[in-house]
Write a structure and sequence with these properties.
About 55% of the residues lie in helices and about 15% in strands. By secondary structure, the chain is of the alpha/beta class. The protein is globular and about 45 Å long. The protein binds adenosine-5'-diphosphate and thymidine-5'-diphosphate.
Length: about 200
């Protein structure tokens, strides 16, 4: 089973991924966790370029292809082999991040980014995606801009959030909305409940 966590910066993905992995471990389910961009040697190198504080000039299209190159390598080197071994694969960001950030945020077009992404991953999509929703205002209260993308500001995150809500409507069979403006524990419990329902149904 392939599960991704999505949301704007500061939505609590990292926190929830960590708790969810502990839950999988307690249940004795074999899993791996991947981080985007990164997760392979190539991906980690690309991550350094993308999140570098010193400005390397990267135009939006180049940025998209860097994310996709990282993802393509991750899918072939890590994700597909783990799924073949029946592991639960947990991804901190996947396709929807590119569609929301590059497609909408960078204005490259959501549809074309979705298509290019499918090319990069040979059509692999998560079975289940948790979209953790918070307002950009809450995000800014939690986190101060610390990398090149976060420093884009409130307007950018507002666009990205709208794109996520749009994706949620389009892919309601796969993406579930999680209200991220609650306590860490409440959110975790809901995530586990949804996972248990989902894995029960797909046995
Ligand atoms: P992300 O990985 O989406 O950027 P993090 O998990 O790193 O988000 O969380 C960003 C910040 O918000 C951290 O300081 C974290 O402790 C805090 N945080 C996470 N979840 C919550 C929550 N439900 N309520 C309040 N603060 C939270
Ligand atoms: P991440 O390390 O997950 O940041 P955070 O924990 O703050 O959410 O992601 C780093 C940044 O990369 C984040 O601002 C989102 C951006 N990003 C894209 O723009 N496109 C993508 O395809 C991915 C995976 C991430």
């Amino acid at each position: 089973m392939f599960i991704s966590f999505e949301g704007i910066d500061g939505s609590g993905k990292g926190t929830q991924v960590t708790l969810f992995l502990s839950y999988l471990a307690r249940r004795g389910l074999p899993y791996i966790c991947v981080r985007e961009p990164g997760g392979t040697e190539l991906g980690e190198t690309i991550r350094e370029i993308l999140l570098a504080k010193e400005e390397i000039s990267i135009c939006p299209r180049a940025e998209l292809f860097l994310f996709l190159a990282s993802r393509s390598q991750l899918v072939s080197e890590v994700v597909l082999p783990a799924l073949r071994e029946d592991k639960v694969v947990v991804a901190d960001r996947f396709i929807d991040s590119s569609v929301a950030y590059q497609g909408a945020g960078r204005k490259l077009g959501m549809k074309v980014v979705e298509e290019l992404n499918d090319f990069a991953t040979c059509g692999l999509r998560p079975d289940l995606t948790y979209y953790i929703d918070i307002t950009p205002e809450t995000a800014f209260q939690r986190k101060h801009g610390s990398d090149r993308i976060e420093s884009e500001g409130l307007k950018f995150l507002t666009t990205v959030r709208e794109a996520y809500l749009n994706l949620l409507e389009q892919h309601s069979n796969r993406i579930v909305l999680i209200n991220g403006e609650r306590s860490v524990g409440e959110i975790h419990e809901e995530i586990v409940r949804i996972f248990e329902n989902f894995s029960g149904r797909n046995k």
